[in-house]
Design brief:
The protein is globular, with a radius of gyration of 16 Å. It has a four-stranded antiparallel beta sheet. A two-stranded antiparallel sheet has the order 4-5. The chain is 35% helix and 24% strand. Strand 4 and strand 5 form a beta hairpin. By secondary structure, it is an alpha+beta fold. Helix 1 packs across helix 3.
Length: 153
């Protein structure tokens, strides 16, 4: 498959305010269970580690940046919603399959309630433009894919 048919996409599952303790807390240890579920969804599509992916957890970036600027030193990170993110380098067909897998694995109903998160969530999907300098971080997904394809050749 020609790599030009692949793009970087990022899913973001907004979970609401951070938990006070545990993996959903801002200072929590370990990987958030929803981030793990997102990664497992990616592994279900083409097999383990076949779709280059990266998961993360933290404050909703846009809301966090606004709060920092608006309230400066009075800013309380515990009042900013958190999200789990999954970045992937996929074809359109893989992206469609991944959307279905995420809905199934997180048990997301049309009203946004997730049985896996045991709360209402908001799921977003955005394309990542690799030609934009601020998105250079995502290049490692493309490099991982190239490494996989050259190793299997």
């Amino acid at each position: 498959m020609d790599e030009d048919e692949r793009d970087v996409w990022e899913f973001a599952v907004e979970l609401g305010l951070p938990d006070e303790t545990g993996p959903g807390a801002l200072d929590g240890e370990g990987i958030h269970p929803i981030a793990l579920a997102l990664e497992e969804s990616a592994h279900r599509i083409e097999g383990v580690n076949r779709i280059p992916c990266y998961t993360s957890f933290g404050p909703v970036t846009a809301l966090d940046e606004f709060a920092q600027r608006a309230w400066g030193d009075g800013y309380d990170a515990a009042r900013v919603p958190v999200e789990c993110r999954l970045a992937v380098y996929v074809t359109d067909d893989e992206l469609d399959a991944l959307v279905t897998a995420i809905v199934e694995d997180l048990g997301i109903a049309e009203d946004g309630y997730s049985t896996a998160a045991d709360r209402k969530v908001t799921v977003g999907l955005r394309a990542i433009a690799l030609d934009s300098p601020e998105n250079g971080f995502y290049q490692h997904l493309v490099d991982q894919y190239r490494d996989q394809t050259s190793a299997s050749s």
